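Blinded run. Sample ID left blank on purpose so nobody reads anything into the name before looking at the predicted structure. Input follows.
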Amino acid sequence: MRKICVINQKGGVGKTTTTVNLAFGLAKKGKKVLIVDLDAQGNISDCLPISSNKDIYNLLIGDASIEECTYNVCENLDVIPSCETLTKAEFILVGETNREKILRQKLSKVSGYDYVFIDCPPSLGLLNQNALLYADEAIIPASVDVLGFDALKKMESAMNKINEVFHHSIELAVVVPTMFDSRVKSCKEILKLMNKEYFNQIAEPIRTNSKIKESPSKKKSIFEYAKSSNGSKDYAKLVERVASEEESTESVNSLNRQLESANGSVMYN
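Blinded prediction complete.
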């Protein structure tokens, strides 16, 4: 099970849009996917047809079970939603022992999924620390502008600090350049910088597209709302990239198991 947080301390860069469309695309490929909304704005519920009584707040702070807080959206896609009540959570969690690992504890019994995506709030607060310490991988959507590039660098630095302080090993899996407009010179210049800095981790850019902005109002993914749009084509490429990384990981793990069985040791990481 791949545990991935979609995170950036900067708001308005496409975190929720990326989470929803990536999760939906993988679900359509037959992968079992769970989205956990960790943002008090509750935008996942704005983007998908969810009607909830219990949510992530009830799981983190109350005694609700995972099953009570989980809602099926479509085949292979489930969601643990959020709402504004979650704003209280950070204040409550501050007084808890191991407060940075409450999410890990609460989600420890989640099973049966190929992917768990955490949609994170635009901050570096306690909830995001919990997300980073739960996940094994991070996807960082970053707007293709000066402030977006600066936020990307700061987010990477924060991840490295979390790994250092908590002896964790979350990896930066993919940088997703968002809101790219090839007609704008500064966009092309920033994208070039991103490619230079993150050439192994950067995905193809998500182009500015009105259909991406419209789809949440219809509570649909971009694939359902406008399957022939540039937004749909761009997110389809991201889905394929993430899926191909899974296949690569499975191949390495299979090789490890074979070597371990033959030699009693693991040769590759």
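Unblinding after everyone has recorded impressions. The domain at 2-263 is CATH 3.40.50.300 (Rossmann fold).
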